[in-house]
Request: fold
Amino acid sequence: YSRFIPREELGAFAAWHPDTLNAELEPAAAAAPPAEAAAPPAQVAAARQAGYQDGYRDGLVALDSFKQSFAMQMTTQLGQLVQSFHTQIDALEQQMAQAVAQAAVMLARRVVRAEVHAHPEQVAELATQAVNAVLQSARQIRVLVHPEDHALVASGAAEALQSRGARLLPHPDVARGGCIVESDLGRIDASIDIRWREAAATLGSELPWHDDEAPRP
Reply:
């Protein structure tokens, strides 16, 4: 299209310059909303204080929970420790009681041995009691004693032996201080080791009369 347009037909116009675009854009930029202003220092301080209080409160809650959990754990551990302590004390008391009883039995055996050695004539009283314990209907009564006790029993228990028609015989297998009475109705073992075993059993001990004798099962 090559038609020339007269000035009269153009109407109002203005010449264009490069700065014209910037001038048109400046009003739009001015019309943009202003940036948000920074919060006042008081609000920042209040927010920090609130955050500090929330964190402090949460810390106290966590600390209280830890204290309760720790207390429960320590209570359980202390309870187990106390129970273990009581168990050990009970076991120790039993061991001590057994040791004391054993010492008492050993002391009693020493005393009895010393008594038998110091007063061997007591075997005559024992033989008398054993003969009298035999039933009146018994016959063929024999009293066996250690050879070294024969004379003591013969003189000290003569009346009991004669009244029952008993025979006094020495026997090396009978320990000193004891005797064995045999008859057609049975046997009475009044040997020192048997009597000692019965006495020790009342104290819960199996300590034998002879040191080289093994305790009975």
Notes: The first helix runs from residue 7 to 10. The helical segments are 7-10, 19-31, 41-118, 122-133, 150-156, 158-164, 192-201. The mean pLDDT is 80. Strands lie at 142-145, 167-170, 179-183, 186-190.
